[in-house]
Amino acid sequence: MKMKTILSGMRPTGQLHLGHWVGALSNWIKLQEEYNCLFMVADWHALMSEYKNSGEIKGFAIDNVADWLSCGIDPDKSDIFIQSQVPEHLELLMILSVMVPLGWLFRCPTYKDQVQQLKDKEVNTYAFLGYPVLQAADILLYKAHKVPVGEDQLPHLELCREIVRKFHLISKTEIFIEPKPVLTDIPRFLGIDGRKMSKSYKNYIALDEDDQTLEMKVLSMFTDPERKRRNDPGRPEVCNVFSSYLIFKEEYKDEVRDWCVNAKKGCRDCKKMLSDILKEFIAPIREKKEKILKKKNYIEDILEKGRKNAKSIAIQTINETREALKL
Ligand code: TRP
Ligand code: SF4
User: Fold this and answer.
1) Which CATH number fits domain 5-190+298-324: 3.40.50.620, 3.90.45.10, 2.60.40.1220, 3.40.718.10?
2) How does pLDDT run across 249-267, given as a tens digit for each residue?
């Protein structure tokens, strides 16, 4: 039986951090065992917000791919490619664009949000409004059955499904598949200040963080704000240090809860131990990444193989799409 297809992507706009591992990579790594997976560096999506610093995108693309590989994305199982190296994404974007009403895009909750949040980046542009249409093209080009994404991306998936239905209605064909989202079952992992972990908040722990910085960051993590003194009992359920244990060392959860609610240990000790756990988690990733970046042409060869495989599927879909519209 043919395996079902998964497509997912990340925008190369900065260093990857533990939030990416929790929210996406850990899921990708599992899924590659059961699906035919395509993992894409969404550099055109990155360009939509980073066009003033476009020269940085390429470096982040390579760095991010190095992180994917170091975390366990296996290039023998999955295809890794760069969106802009498969121009068919743009042809499908154009074809879909002609049938997407402006209202669908203006109404998209992520659009209003991002224009507000990225004020300094001036994303009130023509291309940015079409962000979800390009994302739909990414997914439909490969007829992905499932798309692992974060919760924030669900409106884009819904829009993609709507676009499929409209395309089918207009073309009287059924060439595409309505993709389904796949969410992770790992609890959310917040930044060290208690907000969403994000590059722009500078509250992240990088996937290749060095031990010293890592420890400093963990020791400054936001905890239960009501546990002010060493003898106050804490509330693990509102503490991000505790949720970090759940993610990275579940077997310690009962012990840590006991320290916390019975004030047996202070937050500093609790964080110190978490820091050691995270060091142990990050060290092999960091070492593997160093090796990967030293191997000449290693990443380039993987990306070339990915590009070729992606391209051959993309061409077929574009041909079918043109045929469906009698172009
Ligand atoms: N918009 C996604 C994000 O910011 C990145 C992305 C681009 C993507 N194209 C995609 C994700 C296609 C899944 C499928 O996370
Ligand atoms: Fe959080 Fe640990 Fe402090 Fe409890 S003891 S509040 S779990 S850091």
Assistant:
1) 3.40.50.620
2) 999 999 999 999 999 999 9
